[in-house]
Specification:
9% of the residues lie in helices and 68% in strands. The chain is mainly beta. The chain has one domain (2-79). It has a 5-stranded antiparallel beta sheet. Strand 4 (29-31) and strand 5 (34-36) form a beta hairpin. The protein starts with a strand and ends with a strand.
Amino acid sequence: MNSIVFNFGFTFEGKIYGWHNDSLYRLPGKIGDRDYGFIKCAVWNLQGLPYGFYLGSRKKSTKQILSMVGKIDPVEVFME
């Protein structure tokens, strides 16, 4: 079983996102009674080129995301 340790990320609309190797992931968490699982965020392409990522139903450019990224408490996620 592999694991990834996230040291950089941000919170957006109550959900925690982690940045690792030029990819964005939604980290596991709970808001109220709802649980959110670990997923890799989809890439948003503009005119055929990668431009940013989808954060739920919202789109953010890579430049906007990198301006939000900061040091977070380390989160280790185990992958199958």
